[in-house]
Specification:
Layout (H helix, E strand, L loop, with lengths): L2 H13 L12 H20 L1 H5 L8 H26 L5 H9 L16 H22 L5 H29 L3 H20 L11 H6 L7 H18 L10 E3 L4 E3 L5 H11 L3 H14 L1 H21 L1
Antiparallel strand pairs: 1-2
The protein binds Phenylacetyl coenzyme A.
Protein backbone atom coordinates (compact mmCIF):
# COMPACT_ATOMS: atom_id res chain seq x y z
CA UNK A 1 0.00 0.00 0.00
CA UNK A 2 1.37 3.44 -0.92
CA UNK A 3 2.07 6.06 1.73
CA UNK A 4 -0.80 8.20 0.39
CA UNK A 5 -3.31 5.32 0.71
CA UNK A 6 -2.06 4.58 4.20
CA UNK A 7 -2.45 8.24 5.15
CA UNK A 8 -5.97 8.26 3.73
CA UNK A 9 -6.91 5.11 5.61
CA UNK A 10 -5.43 6.60 8.78
CA UNK A 11 -7.51 9.76 8.36
CA UNK A 12 -10.64 7.64 7.82
CA UNK A 13 -9.98 5.77 11.05
CA UNK A 14 -9.65 9.09 12.89
CA UNK A 15 -12.81 10.47 11.29
CA UNK A 16 -14.69 7.31 12.35
CA UNK A 17 -13.62 7.95 15.94
CA UNK A 18 -11.28 4.94 16.13
CA UNK A 19 -8.40 4.94 18.59
CA UNK A 20 -4.84 4.69 17.27
CA UNK A 21 -2.64 2.23 19.17
CA UNK A 22 1.19 2.13 19.36
CA UNK A 23 1.67 -0.66 16.81
CA UNK A 24 -0.70 0.86 14.24
CA UNK A 25 0.63 2.70 11.19
CA UNK A 26 0.67 6.46 11.74
CA UNK A 27 2.06 9.41 9.77
CA UNK A 28 5.49 10.44 10.99
CA UNK A 29 4.19 13.93 11.65
CA UNK A 30 1.37 12.58 13.89
CA UNK A 31 3.98 10.69 15.90
CA UNK A 32 6.20 13.81 16.15
CA UNK A 33 3.33 16.05 17.19
CA UNK A 34 2.31 13.61 19.91
CA UNK A 35 5.86 13.23 21.22
CA UNK A 36 6.15 17.03 21.37
CA UNK A 37 2.86 17.56 23.13
CA UNK A 38 2.93 14.56 25.48
CA UNK A 39 6.51 15.12 26.59
CA UNK A 40 5.79 18.82 27.23
CA UNK A 41 2.79 17.70 29.23
CA UNK A 42 4.89 15.20 31.25
CA UNK A 43 7.50 17.89 31.98
CA UNK A 44 4.73 20.27 33.11
CA UNK A 45 3.47 17.75 35.64
CA UNK A 46 6.96 17.21 37.07
CA UNK A 47 8.01 20.88 37.14
CA UNK A 48 4.47 21.60 38.39
CA UNK A 49 5.31 19.83 41.65
CA UNK A 50 7.72 22.61 42.60
CA UNK A 51 5.53 25.68 43.26
CA UNK A 52 3.26 23.80 45.67
CA UNK A 53 6.00 21.49 46.97
CA UNK A 54 7.56 24.68 48.30
CA UNK A 55 4.77 24.85 50.93
CA UNK A 56 4.64 21.25 52.19
CA UNK A 57 6.81 21.94 55.24
CA UNK A 58 4.80 25.07 56.05
CA UNK A 59 1.24 23.73 55.70
CA UNK A 60 -1.01 25.28 58.37
CA UNK A 61 -2.38 21.96 59.73
CA UNK A 62 -1.76 18.22 59.57
CA UNK A 63 -4.88 17.77 57.39
CA UNK A 64 -3.70 20.38 54.90
CA UNK A 65 -0.22 18.86 54.88
CA UNK A 66 -1.57 15.37 54.12
CA UNK A 67 -3.73 16.69 51.28
CA UNK A 68 -0.87 18.70 49.78
CA UNK A 69 1.59 15.80 50.05
CA UNK A 70 -0.86 13.55 48.29
CA UNK A 71 -1.57 16.13 45.57
CA UNK A 72 2.10 16.73 44.83
CA UNK A 73 2.71 12.96 44.69
CA UNK A 74 -0.20 12.65 42.26
CA UNK A 75 1.52 15.17 39.95
CA UNK A 76 4.67 13.02 39.98
CA UNK A 77 2.51 10.03 39.06
CA UNK A 78 0.96 11.97 36.17
CA UNK A 79 4.44 12.76 34.90
CA UNK A 80 5.33 9.06 35.03
CA UNK A 81 2.19 7.90 33.17
CA UNK A 82 2.86 10.52 30.52
CA UNK A 83 6.55 9.65 30.10
CA UNK A 84 5.49 5.99 29.73
CA UNK A 85 2.81 6.90 27.20
CA UNK A 86 5.41 8.93 25.26
CA UNK A 87 7.74 5.91 25.25
CA UNK A 88 5.07 3.97 23.31
CA UNK A 89 5.83 6.35 20.42
CA UNK A 90 9.51 5.41 20.44
CA UNK A 91 10.83 8.38 22.43
CA UNK A 92 13.05 7.14 25.24
CA UNK A 93 12.67 8.62 28.68
CA UNK A 94 16.35 9.55 28.71
CA UNK A 95 15.96 11.47 25.46
CA UNK A 96 12.95 13.52 26.55
CA UNK A 97 14.41 14.20 29.99
CA UNK A 98 17.66 15.37 28.40
CA UNK A 99 15.64 17.79 26.29
CA UNK A 100 14.06 19.23 29.42
CA UNK A 101 17.29 19.48 31.38
CA UNK A 102 19.18 21.03 28.46
CA UNK A 103 16.46 23.66 28.06
CA UNK A 104 15.34 22.42 24.62
CA UNK A 105 11.88 21.27 25.73
CA UNK A 106 9.00 23.44 26.81
CA UNK A 107 6.78 22.99 29.85
CA UNK A 108 3.73 24.98 30.90
CA UNK A 109 4.37 28.69 31.44
CA UNK A 110 2.24 28.65 34.61
CA UNK A 111 4.89 26.92 36.69
CA UNK A 112 7.34 29.80 36.28
CA UNK A 113 5.50 32.00 38.79
CA UNK A 114 6.37 32.08 42.50
CA UNK A 115 4.14 30.85 45.35
CA UNK A 116 4.36 33.73 47.81
CA UNK A 117 1.81 32.68 50.43
CA UNK A 118 -0.24 29.68 51.54
CA UNK A 119 -3.20 31.18 49.65
CA UNK A 120 -1.31 30.43 46.43
CA UNK A 121 -1.64 26.71 47.19
CA UNK A 122 -5.42 27.12 47.39
CA UNK A 123 -5.56 29.14 44.17
CA UNK A 124 -3.33 26.74 42.23
CA UNK A 125 -5.67 23.87 43.15
CA UNK A 126 -8.71 25.89 42.12
CA UNK A 127 -7.50 27.75 39.03
CA UNK A 128 -4.50 25.80 37.68
CA UNK A 129 -6.00 22.36 38.25
CA UNK A 130 -9.34 23.79 37.09
CA UNK A 131 -7.71 24.83 33.80
CA UNK A 132 -5.90 21.50 33.51
CA UNK A 133 -9.19 19.59 33.90
CA UNK A 134 -10.91 21.58 31.14
CA UNK A 135 -8.01 20.92 28.76
CA UNK A 136 -7.52 17.30 29.79
CA UNK A 137 -11.17 16.25 29.71
CA UNK A 138 -10.94 17.03 26.01
CA UNK A 139 -7.64 15.11 25.74
CA UNK A 140 -9.26 12.06 27.39
CA UNK A 141 -11.06 11.69 24.04
CA UNK A 142 -7.88 12.15 22.01
CA UNK A 143 -7.21 9.77 19.11
CA UNK A 144 -4.06 8.23 20.58
CA UNK A 145 -5.03 5.37 22.92
CA UNK A 146 -2.22 5.52 25.51
CA UNK A 147 -2.61 9.30 25.87
CA UNK A 148 -6.40 9.25 26.18
CA UNK A 149 -6.32 6.41 28.74
CA UNK A 150 -3.70 8.22 30.84
CA UNK A 151 -5.92 11.31 30.73
CA UNK A 152 -8.96 9.47 32.12
CA UNK A 153 -7.12 8.60 35.30
CA UNK A 154 -5.33 11.95 35.52
CA UNK A 155 -8.63 13.83 35.23
CA UNK A 156 -10.09 11.89 38.17
CA UNK A 157 -7.14 12.91 40.32
CA UNK A 158 -7.21 16.50 39.07
CA UNK A 159 -10.88 16.71 40.08
CA UNK A 160 -9.89 15.97 43.66
CA UNK A 161 -7.13 18.58 43.37
CA UNK A 162 -9.56 21.21 42.20
CA UNK A 163 -12.08 20.39 44.94
CA UNK A 164 -9.52 20.67 47.71
CA UNK A 165 -8.31 23.97 46.23
CA UNK A 166 -11.78 25.46 45.93
CA UNK A 167 -12.71 24.31 49.45
CA UNK A 168 -9.67 26.18 50.78
CA UNK A 169 -10.41 29.24 48.64
CA UNK A 170 -13.99 29.33 49.96
CA UNK A 171 -12.80 28.97 53.56
CA UNK A 172 -10.27 31.77 53.26
CA UNK A 173 -12.75 34.01 51.43
CA UNK A 174 -15.08 33.48 54.41
CA UNK A 175 -12.29 33.95 56.97
CA UNK A 176 -10.63 36.86 58.77
CA UNK A 177 -9.93 40.12 56.90
CA UNK A 178 -6.27 39.03 56.60
CA UNK A 179 -7.27 35.70 55.06
CA UNK A 180 -9.66 37.45 52.67
CA UNK A 181 -6.89 39.81 51.61
CA UNK A 182 -4.43 36.93 51.13
CA UNK A 183 -6.80 34.93 48.95
CA UNK A 184 -7.80 37.92 46.80
CA UNK A 185 -4.12 38.79 46.35
CA UNK A 186 -3.40 35.23 45.17
CA UNK A 187 -6.32 35.36 42.70
CA UNK A 188 -5.04 38.72 41.41
CA UNK A 189 -1.60 37.23 40.74
CA UNK A 190 -2.69 33.84 39.25
CA UNK A 191 -5.72 34.77 37.13
CA UNK A 192 -3.92 36.07 34.04
CA UNK A 193 -1.10 33.46 34.01
CA UNK A 194 -3.82 30.77 34.24
CA UNK A 195 -5.56 32.17 31.15
CA UNK A 196 -2.19 31.94 29.36
CA UNK A 197 -1.99 28.19 30.07
CA UNK A 198 -4.40 27.53 27.18
CA UNK A 199 -1.82 28.81 24.70
CA UNK A 200 -1.91 31.54 22.04
CA UNK A 201 -5.08 32.72 20.28
CA UNK A 202 -6.30 30.30 17.61
CA UNK A 203 -4.98 32.45 14.75
CA UNK A 204 -1.50 32.41 16.36
CA UNK A 205 -1.49 28.70 17.19
CA UNK A 206 0.56 26.86 14.54
CA UNK A 207 -0.22 23.37 15.86
CA UNK A 208 -3.98 23.50 16.50
CA UNK A 209 -5.29 22.85 12.97
CA UNK A 210 -3.17 19.72 12.53
CA UNK A 211 -3.97 18.42 16.03
CA UNK A 212 -7.69 18.93 15.42
CA UNK A 213 -7.54 17.23 12.01
CA UNK A 214 -5.96 14.21 13.70
CA UNK A 215 -8.40 14.16 16.60
CA UNK A 216 -5.74 14.86 19.22
CA UNK A 217 -7.52 18.07 20.22
CA UNK A 218 -11.23 18.53 19.61
CA UNK A 219 -11.45 22.14 20.79
CA UNK A 220 -9.27 25.15 20.11
CA UNK A 221 -7.21 27.08 22.67
CA UNK A 222 -9.70 29.98 22.67
CA UNK A 223 -12.73 27.70 23.04
CA UNK A 224 -11.20 26.01 26.08
CA UNK A 225 -10.13 29.34 27.58
CA UNK A 226 -13.72 30.62 27.24
CA UNK A 227 -15.10 27.51 29.03
CA UNK A 228 -12.61 28.12 31.82
CA UNK A 229 -13.60 31.78 32.20
CA UNK A 230 -17.34 31.00 32.17
CA UNK A 231 -16.99 28.42 34.91
CA UNK A 232 -14.46 30.15 37.15
CA UNK A 233 -15.97 33.64 37.13
CA UNK A 234 -19.14 32.12 38.59
CA UNK A 235 -17.16 30.17 41.17
CA UNK A 236 -15.24 33.33 42.17
CA UNK A 237 -18.42 35.35 42.56
CA UNK A 238 -20.08 32.55 44.55
CA UNK A 239 -17.48 33.02 47.31
CA UNK A 240 -17.27 36.81 47.04
CA UNK A 241 -13.97 37.07 45.15
CA UNK A 242 -13.21 39.58 42.41
CA UNK A 243 -11.64 38.72 39.06
CA UNK A 244 -8.84 41.23 38.30
CA UNK A 245 -10.17 42.23 34.88
CA UNK A 246 -11.92 45.60 34.38
CA UNK A 247 -13.22 44.43 30.97
CA UNK A 248 -15.01 41.38 32.34
CA UNK A 249 -18.66 41.54 31.32
CA UNK A 250 -21.47 39.02 30.87
CA UNK A 251 -22.94 38.95 27.38
CA UNK A 252 -26.63 38.01 27.69
CA UNK A 253 -26.87 37.11 24.02
CA UNK A 254 -23.92 34.72 23.77
CA UNK A 255 -24.29 33.66 27.42
CA UNK A 256 -20.51 33.95 27.85
CA UNK A 257 -18.30 36.16 29.98
CA UNK A 258 -16.29 38.51 27.78
CA UNK A 259 -12.84 39.29 29.10
CA UNK A 260 -9.86 41.59 28.51
CA UNK A 261 -6.78 40.93 26.37
CA UNK A 262 -3.99 38.77 27.71
CA UNK A 263 -0.52 40.28 27.91
CA UNK A 264 1.05 38.14 25.17
CA UNK A 265 4.46 39.78 25.59
CA UNK A 266 4.52 38.45 29.15
CA UNK A 267 3.42 34.99 27.92
CA UNK A 268 6.13 34.67 25.26
CA UNK A 269 8.73 36.08 27.61
CA UNK A 270 7.94 33.32 30.12
CA UNK A 271 7.84 30.64 27.39
CA UNK A 272 11.29 31.78 26.20
CA UNK A 273 12.73 31.20 29.66
CA UNK A 274 12.61 34.70 31.15
CA UNK A 275 9.73 34.39 33.60
CA UNK A 276 10.14 35.11 37.31
CA UNK A 277 11.05 31.51 38.23
CA UNK A 278 12.28 29.78 35.01
CA UNK A 279 15.93 29.66 36.03
CA UNK A 280 15.14 28.55 39.57
CA UNK A 281 12.80 25.77 38.35
CA UNK A 282 15.39 24.37 35.92
CA UNK A 283 18.15 24.58 38.52
CA UNK A 284 15.99 22.58 40.97
CA UNK A 285 15.14 19.94 38.34
CA UNK A 286 18.80 19.57 37.30
CA UNK A 287 19.88 19.17 40.93
CA UNK A 288 17.12 16.61 41.56
CA UNK A 289 18.22 14.66 38.48
CA UNK A 290 21.83 14.72 39.61
CA UNK A 291 20.90 13.67 43.16
CA UNK A 292 18.81 10.80 41.79
CA UNK A 293 21.74 9.35 39.82
CA UNK A 294 22.52 6.69 42.43
CA UNK A 295 18.88 5.55 42.49
CA UNK A 296 18.84 5.06 38.71
CA UNK A 297 22.18 3.25 38.89
CA UNK A 298 20.95 0.95 41.67
CA UNK A 299 17.73 0.19 39.74
CA UNK A 300 19.72 -0.64 36.61
CA UNK A 301 22.04 -2.92 38.58
CA UNK A 302 19.07 -4.66 40.20
CA UNK A 303 17.43 -5.18 36.79
CA UNK A 304 20.73 -6.57 35.41
CA UNK A 305 21.02 -9.07 38.28
CA UNK A 306 17.39 -10.16 37.85
CA UNK A 307 18.05 -10.75 34.13
CA UNK A 308 21.15 -12.83 34.89
CA UNK A 309 19.27 -14.93 37.44
CA UNK A 310 16.46 -15.59 34.96
CA UNK A 311 18.97 -16.58 32.27
CA UNK A 312 20.68 -19.01 34.67
CA UNK A 313 17.36 -20.55 35.68
CA UNK A 314 16.19 -21.13 32.09
N1 LIG B 1 3.31 27.22 28.17
O1 LIG B 1 0.39 25.89 18.51
P1 LIG B 1 0.14 26.00 19.98
C1 LIG B 1 -1.11 20.81 34.70
C2 LIG B 1 3.71 26.64 23.11
S1 LIG B 1 -0.50 20.29 33.22
C3 LIG B 1 4.41 26.96 27.43
O2 LIG B 1 -1.18 26.50 20.41
P2 LIG B 1 -0.52 23.39 20.95
C4 LIG B 1 -1.30 19.81 35.80
C5 LIG B 1 3.40 25.35 22.38
O3 LIG B 1 4.00 24.26 23.02
C6 LIG B 1 -0.36 21.75 32.23
N2 LIG B 1 4.36 26.80 26.08
O4 LIG B 1 0.47 24.59 20.66
C7 LIG B 1 -0.85 20.41 37.08
C8 LIG B 1 3.95 25.65 21.00
O5 LIG B 1 5.37 25.51 21.01
P3 LIG B 1 6.17 24.34 20.14
C9 LIG B 1 0.17 21.42 30.91
C10 LIG B 1 3.15 26.91 25.50
O6 LIG B 1 0.28 22.21 21.28
C11 LIG B 1 -1.68 21.25 37.79
C12 LIG B 1 3.69 27.13 20.84
O7 LIG B 1 3.50 27.65 22.15
N3 LIG B 1 -0.85 20.82 30.09
O8 LIG B 1 -1.36 21.94 34.77
C13 LIG B 1 1.97 27.16 26.22
O9 LIG B 1 -1.54 23.28 19.86
C14 LIG B 1 -1.26 21.81 39.02
C15 LIG B 1 2.46 27.40 20.00
O10 LIG B 1 1.26 26.92 20.66
C16 LIG B 1 -0.55 20.26 28.92
O11 LIG B 1 0.58 20.21 28.52
C17 LIG B 1 2.08 27.32 27.61
N4 LIG B 1 1.02 27.58 28.40
O12 LIG B 1 -1.35 23.88 22.26
C18 LIG B 1 0.39 20.07 37.60
C19 LIG B 1 -1.72 19.65 28.17
N5 LIG B 1 0.94 27.21 25.35
O13 LIG B 1 5.96 23.06 20.89
C20 LIG B 1 0.81 20.61 38.82
C21 LIG B 1 -1.31 19.10 26.82
C22 LIG B 1 1.45 27.02 24.12
O14 LIG B 1 5.52 24.29 18.79
C23 LIG B 1 -0.02 21.47 39.54
N6 LIG B 1 -0.96 20.14 25.90
N7 LIG B 1 2.77 26.84 24.22
O15 LIG B 1 7.59 24.78 20.16
C24 LIG B 1 -1.88 20.91 25.23
O16 LIG B 1 -3.08 20.80 25.42
C25 LIG B 1 -1.35 21.83 24.18
O17 LIG B 1 -0.05 21.43 23.83
C26 LIG B 1 -1.32 23.34 24.61
C27 LIG B 1 -0.68 24.14 23.47
C28 LIG B 1 -2.75 23.84 24.82
C29 LIG B 1 -0.52 23.56 25.87
Amino acid sequence: MSKESKAQEFQERIDNGETIEPKDWMPERYQKQLIRMMSQHAHSEVVGMLPEGNWITRAPSLRRKMILLSKVQDEAGHGLYLYSATETLGASRQEVLDDLLNGRAKYSSIFNYPTLSWADVAVIGWLVDGAAIINQTMLARSSYGPYSRAMVRICKEESFHKKQGYEMVAQMADGTPEQQEMIQDAVDRWWWPTLMMFGPHDEDSPNSAELIKWGVKSKTNDELRQSFVDRHVQEAHAVGLEIPDPDLEYNEETEHWEFGEIDWDEFWNVVRGNGPMNKERMKTRREAHENGKWVRKAAEEYARKQRLQKEKAS
